[in-house]
Amino acid sequence: MATSSAAGKTIVITGGAGGLGKAIASAFLAADANVAVFDVNEARLKETAAEWEKYGDKFITAQIDITDETAVNTFFANASAKFGRIDLLVNNAGIMDKFDAAGTTPLDLWNRVIGVNLTGAYLCTKAAINAFETQSPSGGTIISIGSIASVRGLNAGAAYTASKHGLLGLMRNTAGFYGPKGIYSIAFLMGGMNTNVIDAFATGVNQEGMATVTGANPFDPAKQFVGLDDVAKYCIFFSDPAVAETSNGATININKNWPSA
């Protein structure tokens, strides 16, 4: 059997204890990579760590608020110290808004969504770049989990849409500044997935806003949900630096052609 290109690499995944992050982390562990994940949800972390015991010392987990720069930097330092280097960051952590337009978005919700989806991704991108530049050999790759809401205006509320548009700008700027240094940055533009992002709906949504969004973008989960394991395969593919270099600064649509126009 051919050895996976991910074997021996070290992968940091944010929001890695559930949903898409867990699927990505599990795929890398199965490919003989080292995995470092953090998540804000302590219960999910404990459950996931128990499931991964068969991988021995190939992984580390930590409960961290992604908006805490000191905690983020400490985690990256610990991952580098344990595994010797970091090869790939997957900016996966994200939360949904409640389909509010700008005129009805509460400031605290705006700050929370921007904080997790954009500021958190910036803090992790910054920490990863600092690790990539100082390790030997230098270099690494950053995959940011964007959304069709990164390029479309009516697939979510104002806060989520702005955060994912901003994430795309961060990705492209990083690609431009650091590509010549062997640090590559790409984004996946995701369609609908069955992930923990829907936790935000537990306390209710703006029904009028949701009706506006779903009316503009009819969605059939049975046909249009993107499989989490399939997204993980893309991550493993782009963990090869030679492949990542060819797509530096690019967006990769993973959405089953939804919406189609």
TrEMBL record:
PANTHER family: 3-KETOACYL-ACYL CARRIER PROTEIN REDUCTASE-RELATED, SHORT-CHAIN DEHYDROGENASES/REDUCTASES FAMILY MEMBER
Keywords: NADP
Lineage: Eukaryota, Fungi, Dikarya, Ascomycota, Pezizomycotina
Family membership: Belongs to the short-chain dehydrogenases/reductases (SDR) family.
Name of the protein this chain belongs to: Uncharacterized protein
UniProt-listed PROSITE patterns: ADH_SHORT (PS00061)
CDD domains, per database record: SDR_c
Molecular function GO labels: oxidoreductase activity, acting on the CH-OH group of donors, NAD or NADP as acceptor; quinone binding
Protein's GO biological process: fatty acid biosynthetic process
UniProt organism field: Xylaria multiplex
InterPro entries to which the protein is assigned, alphabetical: NAD(P)-bd_dom_sf, Sc_DH/Rdtase_CS, SDR_fam
SUPFAM superfamilies named in the record: NAD(P)-binding Rossmann-fold domains
Xref: Gene3D superfamilies: NAD(P)-binding Rossmann-like Domain
